[in-house]
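ENTRY TYPE: paired fold submission
RECORD: A
CONTENT: sequence, then structure tokens
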Amino acid sequence: MSVFSKGFWKNKSVLVTGCLGFASSWIIKDLIKKGASLTGLNDDYNPHSMLRLEGYEDDICVVQGSITDYATVERVFSQYEIQVCFHLAAQTIEGVCRRSPLAAFETNIKGTWNILEAARNCRQTEAVVIASSDKAYGDQKVLPYHEGQALLGRYPYDASKVCDEILAQSYFHTFGLPVGITRCANIYGGGDLHWSRIVPGTIRSIMQGERPVIRSDGTPVRDYLYVEDAADAYITLAEAVASGKGRGGSFNFSAEHHKSVLEMVKLVISASGRKGLKPDVQGKGKPFQEIDRQILSAKKARSVLGWKAGYSLPEGLKRTFAWYRKYAARFM
């Protein structure tokens, strides 16, 4: 699915922000295999990062610092002569964003404009990929979401991602900065240790011999994307932007197999091989501010980028459960 030859990433100077995070770790793992020269920016040290658990941390240069500090960001771009940037550093947990919106805005919005400005001032910049989210669409009447729809994100996390997109578009239209924007479905896979999320939370319950708890009635519907497909989506978009294709554009990335919460939990249980285990559906109604149905169309990514997901839900969940089973002793 690459638009370039296999040698495009060889010795390419790449920055990944939030480098010890979940999806970013998989992007880095893939880029290391492609021969890129990796620099990561991260504010907190995560001893359970997938990069560390799988032994890739020593293959990258990790700069400890905050994306909210422009001097740090500018220094990284200048010192390491960054050619491609994947900007994933953000507060991504919606509940945390609601409890501390100012801190979330500082990280998610200021962090993005710092990245864009530093990239603008870096003569080597070929591509900047900004992580938005399907949450930026907000509550839409027309499903599935497509890129031509207005962004209606209203809650703190959602609104921060709308702002990120506006900033990225501004830098593209004003300065010609080569940017691309990802709107991914809910990413799942090995290495996600945010236990409040449905897949890792369900896996932890199963591995601890407990029934997975669904506090709602289990009916909210979401799209899901396996993390290796997500990493491929980011890399494909970066290559396209560097070639001049899709610059300034936003792209949905989804495997286009949406499931209800209850259906998803049952699929995780099936992937675990635990026959007869039933979820504890407490039926308390959907959580405050939760949108009932979020479904993405990936038609634009297929037609413009030639990208499509490679893993079915059962395949992705089996690989995910195998990862947690392998590393469980390190974090459970």
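RECORD: B
CONTENT: sequence, then structure tokens
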Amino acid sequence: MSQIKSLRTGIKFKDTPIGKIPVDWEVTKLGDVATAFQNGGTPDTKIKEYWGGDIPWITGADLINQRVGQTRKYITPEGVKNSATSIVPKGSLLVVTRTGVGKLAIAPFDIAISQDISGVIPDKQKSLPNFLFWNLNYNEKKLKALKQGTSINGILREDLSSLLISLPPLPEQKKIAEILTTVDDAIEETDRIIEKTKELKKGLMQKLLTCGIGHKKFKRTEIGEIPEDWEVGKISDYGEIVTGSTPSTLVKEYYGNDFPFVSPFDLGKAKVIIKTEKYISKEGASVARMLPANTILFVCIGSTIGKTGVAGVQLATNQQINAIICEGSDFNFVYYYLSFISDKIKQIAGTQAVPIVNKSLFSNVLVVVPRLKEQQEIGKILSSVDTELEDEENHKHTLESLKKSLMQILLTGKVRVKFH
């Protein structure tokens, strides 16, 4: 992030049709900084000779997170010649102008485009592709405002060409683009780490929750092969099962800000539940069943059956949630194991209009019961992976906030970069 050290303030501004900008910046039309706009099209899908070649061809759906994702389709030179598609040169802008307006990317290689996309070839003597990319990203709302039509919303070529943008000197464009790209690359790398960590967690759960740690002898059971010294039990063997309830909404005194009141909406976002959208008062707590911290929460009614969480503080739940107050079991292990078998539990609910796994059915679901020490070891390993995931996701959030702030100040000239 050393690029960010090059920022400076103390700027004079001027009024323009797009607002205040630095006095040495210009306002220009997108068409005035492009050498060409290219249309897209789709070769006839009924003619095999047009498809399966070596020319990558994309639609708006292939632009993911402002990048070209995995190329799904390829066409032949004959497909290009006999359709409205164009091959956009590497480094040009790809602007979705139909069906997903606002999505952007820079062509990573020469690429053919569908009618959803317009190719914008920048005049590098006036504007740099990377800077235009960030400028249009920042002006996404203005792009979407250009949409016309009812059946297929789209942007007309002349409207896209007439879009007004701010234009700093070329050296400053380069520096702004470098700073924003540096932050964006860091976000992308963090995303890769998050995905790898999720894969690691999935693999560890599969191994640890079926094979345990260091076991060499296994036995066949009604729930599959498990380590020889593990037992098959019921969820009720993990602890006391409690079904939540809702204090009367007619009694205002039952609701306040003393204790979190958990509904299925609150589960699935994070492992540990500390805050919720609704709270009950001490009076409400007197008529609800309060649950201690480290209680396991499991949705058992409705379309979200299987969502699982851990009470981070004392709280209560509504009637759609069954809770397990762990007794003689490690709460981390129970959380991960129930998450692991959540789909199997969901199947018990059947296909009725309002699926339900009532307290009796839930209590009697068959589960593995390792010795407490091994439960604790498994829970500790998986918790450490979750902690790593949370750290990376928090880091990503910080970077995204930084990127948003930098776009706001750099692309408006509120803070200038040193480029001399």
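NOTES ON RECORD B: The chain has a mean pLDDT of 94. The longest strand covers residues 51-58.
STATUS: closed
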